[in-house]
Amino acid sequence: AHLDRIAAVDGQVSAFLHVDRDTTLAQARRVDERRAAGEDLGPLAGVPVAHKDVFTTKDMPTTAGSKILEGWRPPYDATVTARLREAGLVILGKTNMDEFAMGSSTENSAYFPSRNPWDLERVPGGSSGGSSAAVAAYEAPLSTGTDTGGSIRQPAAVTGIVGMKPTYGGSSRYGVIAFASSLDTPGPFARNVLDAALLHEAFSGHDPMDSTSVGEAVPPVVEAARRADVNGLRVGVVKEFAGDGYQPGVTARFNEAVELLESLGAKVVEVSCPHFTYALPAYYLIAPSECSSNLARFDAMRYGLRVGDDGTRSAEEVMALTRAEGFGPEVKRRIMLGTYALSSGYYDAYYGKAQQVRTLIKRDFEAAFEQVDVLVSPTTPTTAFPIGERADDPVAMYLADLCTIPANLTGNAAISVPCGLSDGLPVGLQIMAPVLGDDRVYRVGAAVER
Ligand code: GLN
Questions:
Q1: Which of 52, 55, 102 is the pocket-test mutation for ligand 1 (most atoms within 8 Å of CB)?
Q2: pLDDT, tens digit (0-9, with 9 covering 90-100), for 284-325
Q3: Scanning 30, 106, 146, 363, which has its CA 20 to 30 A from the CA of 329?
Q4: Where are the beta strands (DSSP E) in 107-253?
């Protein structure tokens, strides 16, 4: 049914980079066989899932939305892919994304922009915009994404679905094509909080293949989503995430969500996190710095595209030609920014300073969580913007992640749940919890989702 739905609507939505009916149906038959053989596969067996094209899949191509990996077939599965396969989920295909997960609109895909099912002239958010669009358009019941600065929560918010960034290290980065390794976090998309928790639980937990994987057990997120109550919980409204830059309709829906929390028995207080306003500039030094290092591996020798290798050119020339043609403008901008910020003479002023800001943000979170159990804010300052509106203005694009970036810099758990519409477009409520407090955001999210 989902393959039929994809065939019917993906011509307009453009959520998928790769769909292969035969491979999907073969996987589904294999699940039937395993079931028939008496294997206990767990609650999601047979449920289809769409993977962001940043997760390696051994039976499907993986491009990270870039020309430089066009046609690459990974020899192995990411841990997320492998665990979901093991649990009997069936892969519907690979979803579109901003190239190497750099962007907030999916317009930076080297292939085509994805569209928001609520209004096809608007963006579905990004960088995991194909995954959000697929779930919002009922092409898939579940999908995966990665959140480095907001790339799960922001697309979830603007497409009216649930998107969760787990605690950093709570979900494995093994087989996730790297953007910024200290920030990248795989997480689930679904149409309700309980479904997201089921997917989260199915792929999370310690992975010896990822050196930054946490050792602790997965927090009990499914149980928390089923509990769905806020009675007696202390909720902090982040004072710094309000005011002028927020669309009036976003502010109105957010205030209603806060009132709902109060009416359900939560104790709401205003909390100040004074350094959160520096998170965005710090992120745009740290993330490009890590990207400039990670993307050095695309050297025309190991994977994908190779340009100008006609026997007359040196390896360096082939590398330069390949990178010039294979990377898009946003990726080049990040590599240049990051190389600059890390270079001798500038390192202390930029990268070093940004890492200090990161520590201050961590202290803000710690102080806040001495007073409250969760923090709330709008997920993103505006609803889905028109395709093209911010394409030539990187700073306007970067602002989409204003409220989501603090939790990335510190590794905290955070979710976006739908909290109503503004002018017919979805608005998201962000709920943030301490590191390893993933269950708390599911518990609160399930109580207030609309
Ligand atoms: N929009 C942010 C960026 O462009 C975040 C991306 C992400 O979370 N992958 O870097």
A1: 102
A2: 999 999 999 999 999 999 888 999 999 999 999 999 999 999
A3: 146
A4: 142-146, 162-165, 186-190, 234-238
